[in-house]
Amino acid sequence: MLEREFLEIFKNLVLRKFNFPETHHWKQRDYDYLADLIFKKSGVKLSLSTLKRIWKDDEMRTPQTYTLNALAQLIDYESWNDFKRAQGQTIPAVPVMAKKETGGPKLKWVYILAAVLVLSLGFLLSRFAGPAENIIPTEQILFTSKKTSETGVPNTVVFEYNISQMKVDSAFIQHSWDKRLTAKISADQHFQTFIYYYPGYHTSKLLVNNKSVGMEKIIINTPGWIALAENSIFNEPPIYFKTEDFINNQQLYLPPESLKNYGAISRDNKVFVNYFNVGEFDFINGEHFTLETRLKNNLEEGAMVCQVVQVNLLFENGLISIPFCHPGCVSNIHLHISEIFKDGKQNDLSAFGIDLSQWNDIKIELKNKNVDIYVAGKPVYKLSFKDKLGKVAGFHYRFDGSGAVDHFKIYTNQNELVYSEEF
Question: Is residue 45 classed as helix, strand or coil in its secondary structure?
């Protein structure tokens, strides 16, 4: 396999792991964010021009080795060769030369003298340097949030902070897990606002001098089921729909005609339809429950070519995201369960390739940090995870195109029905 082919695999993995938009939609902030991610992972600061050449395929020659190694470390490989080995490339290991024993009594005295000099220098610095900077305990730093609407989206949240007693070189509020949604703040100000366009749990962090000194958990609820449509452009506000637009004939379904009437279909005929229900599920034990639902994403009824649908279970501390699609497109999907992320290009996700032109009965069973997934009553996939997900925040369907949901049911681990929607 050629080096450029490995680069294409790498770029696709990055797009999915960090939820970037498609490359042709990238703006300057996306390259800034990527450079920051690489620096934090590898300690190597790659220039924006280098990243643009790699991502836009403007550079025919292979990037430098240190550049490739930094890229590999972004997705948790030690080096570019390690990344290539993971793709099945055979690369001979480099032999390690044994180090010769050196030194003796003279070298020992050199080490002792060096240690004495270092200690002496530290003493002198402590005597003549100014007083140490006061450290403000994190619990004494003001950082609070207030929603302007009790429920619904869009929803502006007002953040109040006070870092005036700190020595501040840089200060930001990161408004979500997505680091691109980070805004600069001033030490002599005390408020910043941010609009949340999507429901769910959002964790905001107050970052001072690149350290988190405050955190707020924000839940944006919905008044039951809501529908919204988005395109693939990052951070562009979605389009919201009235209940009567998408709840008809005892199902959730936004027909293409409604999407066109609202101007929701982009110039390239792409549209992603979302159904959310967030905030009604405190009574569910987040460690043990079963979701049963029926869905389809028919090409004749407005689906995009791969008919992708993601069933997302939203929690206080993470999510479970189960994808389904046309069998020929499983290479493009990804599975996300708590701390585990599996990409279809490096993992066998063929179990999630199903016939979405017809109704499919889906069951997702969560018990003791094990997830069992069933299609048409048959087990198709099982996975264990370690992190605690916390309380159930809500549920979310995301369709490539105009998909439909027929029913939605929640059972306890004793098979007791505790929530049911027939729409």
Answer: coil
Find the farthest-apart pair of alpha carbons in the chain and give their distance in angstroms, rounded: 90
Task: Look at the alpha carbons of 40, 41, 43, 48 in this order and tell me if their dihedral is positive or negative.
Answer: negative
User: Residue 417 carries which DSSP code?
Assistant: E
Cα–Cα distance measured from residue 75 to residue 41, given in angstroms and rounded to the nearest whole number:
9
Contact status, residue 51 vs residue 35, Cβ threshold 8 Å: yes
Beta strand segments in 65-210, E: 142-147, 155-162, 171-174, 182-184, 191-196, 200-208
What is d(CA 84, CA 238) in angstroms, rounded to the nearest whole number? Answer: 38
Which pLDDT tens digit goes with each residue over 246-286? 998 889 999 999 998 888 876 667 899 999 999 978 889 99
- 278 in Cβ contact with 223 (< 8 Å): no
290 C-beta neighbours (distance < 10 Å), count: 18
Is residue 135 scored above 80 in pLDDT? Answer: no
Scan for tokens 């179990």, then name that residue.
351
pTM: 0.69
Report how far apart, in Å, the C-alpha atoms of 149 and of each of 14, 176, 220, 282 are. 35, 18, 9, 20
- Alpha carbon distance 40, 31 (integer Å): 14
